[in-house]
Design goal:
A two-stranded antiparallel sheet has the order 1-2. The protein has 390 residues and is mainly α. 49% of the residues are buried. It has a single domain, classed as NCX, central ion-binding region (A middle domain of Talin 1), CATH 1.20.1420. The longest helix is centred in the middle third of the chain and has 37 residues. Helix content is 80%, strand content 1%. It has 15 helices and two strands.
């Protein structure tokens, strides 16, 4: 009996020690002395206080700020996991968790629209949802990839990557653009709202099937096509255990979701108080802060000459938004009775089409440099100005 009790105490002590070790490692990961960006975590309690006190404008701003360091921690965790799973799976994982912010924001906006009887609120939420989806694609294609190429090019004169995987992702993006253009064309040709909704829903289902087939192609039948070529990047050892990396990833994702909830809750009031166009907030501001995980992760790995992973993060995230998140939001809107369609508007659709063409042309030769990254950043700034003045 005494032996059993002693064994039980040893197990409890061992479990307590394991929890303490994990907690210490997580605290070490968010230590501001290791990364100055972690100081922005102070915005987290400020956002909670502002939201509880019904200070809408402050809650909106600080929740956006708090998302950045949390997204960086997501990027750090996925980079650690990628060191064990390979760059293809790591890039897919990073894109998936990086897009969790967009999915949460868009889903909450649609839910808010479904519960509202105010036509202006419904229209605002639909506009912000569509704009955030388009903005995420533009941000990943131009801003994230541009920053990665510039930083990588500063540290390495020429960087090479597997251009076959880049071409396939570029083709998938062109397919998504077709699904975006046709509803817009139908609208400008005089099609009624019901036809546009039906077309968008059918296209959404087809896009989801294509995305599923693309994952099968990438992870099962043609794994060799996406393999990192020898000599690309530097060898790097993990600094966290796989268990700690997953705990950090899940915890930071949950906190990002909390901040996204506060952000959406105060979005409509912030649009009125700040006087910033809702289209600009949706296309530029929300994706900028929401895609912080991709920003940091892609730039960091590009600086380490891991352009295959950087491109997998940036382009893979755009493909996932276009072929998975956008169709899911259309179908979710259908289920909630919200008339969300793939008709994003002439400016948004044109900007996306041009961005895909520019990115595909730059990635066609299988190598990058800092000037090509500057071209992408210049394109993003021009589009940002257009959406601000629209």
């Amino acid at each position: 009996m005494g032996e059993a009790s002693a064994a039980s105490k040893e197990e409890d002590t061992s479990l307590d020690e394991q929890i303490e070790v994990v907690f210490d490692r997580l605290i070490d990961a968010v230590n501001p002395l290791k990364n100055k960006l972690n100081w922005l975590l102070l915005a987290f309690p400020v956002a909670l206080w502002a939201n509880a006190g019904h200070h809408g404008e402050m809650a909106f701003i600080f929740s956006m700020i708090a998302i950045m360091p949390l997204a960086f921690l997501m990027g750090k965790a996925t980079e650690e996991i990628a060191l064990r799973t390979g760059e293809t799976v790591g890039g897919l994982l990073n894109a998936t968790f990086g897009n969790a912010v967009e999915m949460i924001i868009a889903g909450l906006a649609l839910y808010t629209a479904s519960k509202s009887v105010d036509p202006d609120t419904i229209e605002t939420m639909i506009t912000v949802t569509q704009a955030s989806l388009i903005g995420s694609i533009l941000g990943n294609l131009l801003l994230v990839l541009g920053l990665a190429m510039v930083w990588g090019g500063v540290n390495h004169r020429i960087q090479h990557f597997n251009h076959e995987s880049g071409q396939m992702n570029g083709s998938l993006l062109l397919l998504a653009i077709v699904a975006f253009i046709i509803p817009s064309a139908l609208n400008y040709a005089g099609g009624d709202a019901s036809s546009i909704k039906d077309l968008s829903r059918y296209a959404a289902i087809i896009m989801l099937v294509i995305y599923g087939l693309a994952l099968l192609f990438q992870l099962k039948t043609h794994v060799d096509v996406f393999a990192t070529e020898a000599g690309h990047g530097m060898h790097e050892d993990p600094t966290m255990s796989i268990k700690d990396a997953w705990i950090l990833l899940i915890l930071s994702t949950a906190l990002v979701g909390w901040m996204a909830h506060i952000l959406v809750h105060n979005l409509e009031g912030a649009v009125e108080e700040l006087g910033v166009p809702e289209l600009f907030i949706g296309v530029i501001l929300l994706p900028f802060f929401g895609n912080a995980a991709e920003h940091f992760a892609a730039v960091i790995v590009a600086g380490k000459d891991k352009m295959d992973l950087a491109i997998a993060i940036a382009i893979g995230s755009s493909v996932q938004i276009a072929l998975f998140v956008a169709p899911v939001m259309v179908l979710l809107g259908w289920a909630l009775g919200v008339p969300l369609t793939l008709e994003f508007g002439l400016l948004e659709t044109s900007a996306t089409f041009i961005s895909v063409l520019v990115a595909n042309s730059i990635l066609a030769d299988g190598k990058t440099n800092w000037l090509e990254g500057a071209m992408l950043l210049g394109s993003y700034i021009i589009l940002g100005a257009a959406f601000f003045l629209f």
